[in-house]
Amino acid sequence: MTKIKHLGAVSGLFALFLVAACQPNPYKEGERLYKVNCSNCHMDHGEGLHALIPPLAGADYLKNNRDQLPCLVIHGIHDTIVVNGKVYAEQMPGVESLSEIQVANILNFINTSWGNQNQPFMIEEVRTLLKKC
Predict the structure, then answer these.
(1) Fewest CB within a 10 Å sphere: which of 29, 49, 74, 99?
(2) Which domains does the chain have, with CATH numbers?
(3) Are 118 and 63 in contact (CB under 8 A)?
């Protein structure tokens, strides 16, 4: 009888894994964190706000400045940046309360959304890059 219970539990866990693996957005936590911490300025679809806030959707900055991204999320931007050939001078506040895993989740959501096709961040990479801030 206990073998049947264990088999049922294993089957249930496997089914749960399959459902999670088939979801269209594997970065759900990153999406949630983005909505809470970033979308007020960068908008829900990463389009930014005209001349004030740079877009994240299709942004060359993400690929060209990968090593700086974790630090920007935590500490913000206090200088001008160029995104898709356009200069942006608005300061961006950081979110210092985010953990390394939360930073990785946000960046992975951004890097795979709105036409972006950048490599995902591993937690070890984020940890190493944050030490360089």
Answers:
(1) 99
(2) 27-131 (1.10.760.10)
(3) yes
